[in-house]
Amino acid sequence: HETAISACYDAKAQVTGDSRLAPPTSITLPSRIRGKVRDQYHLPSSILLLTTDRQSGFDRSLASVPFKGSVLNQISNFWFKKTEHIIPNHILSLPHSNITVAKKCTPFAVEMVVRSYMTGSTSTSIWKNYSSGIRDYCGHNLREGYVKNVKLDETIFTPTTKDEHDRPISCEEIVSEGLMTKEDLDFCSQKVLEVFKFGQEWAADRGLILVDTKFELGKDENGDIILIDEVLTPDSSRYWIKSSYEERIAAGKEPENIDKEFLRLWFSKNCDPYADEVLPDAPKDMVCELSRRYVGLYEMITGEAFIVPEGGEEGVKKAVEE
Prior knowledge:
Blueprint: H1 2-16, E1 32-34, E2 38-42, E3 47-51, E4 54-57, E5 60-64, H2 68-83, E6 91-96, E7 99-102, E8 105-107, E9 110-117, H3 126-131, E10 136-137, E11 140-141, E12 151-157, E13 160-161, H4 171-176, H5 182-204, E14 208-220, E15 225-228, E16 237-241, H6 242-250, H7 261-270, H8 284-302, H9 312-321
Antiparallel strand pairs: 1-2, 2-3, 3-7, 4-5, 6-7, 8-14, 9-12, 9-13, 9-14, 10-11, 14-15, 14-16
Helix pairs in contact: 1-8, 2-8
GO biological process, one term: 'de novo' IMP biosynthetic process
Pathway: Purine metabolism; IMP biosynthesis via de novo pathway; 5-amino-1-(5-phospho-D-ribosyl)imidazole-4-carboxamide from 5-amino-1-(5-phospho-D-ribosyl)imidazole-4-carboxylate: step 1/2
Domain SAICAR synthetase/ADE2 N-terminal: 33-277
């Protein structure tokens, strides 16, 4: 995939003049809502979700990563199918590797985050809070003595709000602030813990550690709670390589990761991604390395070879029209 990744990067930069941006799309459908990574198009009886190559972090766009959208969409579809015995989901069809047609639903105003390790670099992460002295985190009383990247005593549910800048919140606060009913929250928290456990076991059998993730859930038109958005992707989750974890932790090194954390760390070291108005361009070699990691993770999780999408934007437009 090396040549295809590099060629795709160069083509994006030539079209946009900015490696942080994905090439503009000329898809013309009503009710477009542009998200950090996904564009939504509301159809009469469903929603079309177009997963782009945009890479977000720190609540803003960082880069455009070749084939990322295709990988994310297909990994999500894989996990949706694998976990539908635990909770139903929004999938109706996948007409293209970047596109999902999904049920209409009303999302909950809470991101359902699950964590198993003391890590993270963002303002809402457990390590960022713990290392600054906070011990009451999302309603959990964290013990003393944790160091970065070690396993927590137990997997915990650590929700955040969906404000302009997310904030950690406890289950009690979610209910008291009217964001969810206790009944819905209890159901959702239990289900995401079950899906996470399933994902951890599947990943472990394939040489991976599923560290943490965030889920989104909502209610469909029948009032049933379903899993939506994306599931256990390298955007919504953190994955480490299992075989080298113990040795690297013992040596005081960062775990060998296969997600976007190394790109977040680069921005943290080279600028203030929360305060700086203009961010530097991520180096091409890092962006292409991230693309390789996404493709590699897809192949490790699914056991299938990644097929480079054909047709570019025209292929996406054709799938939409059909």
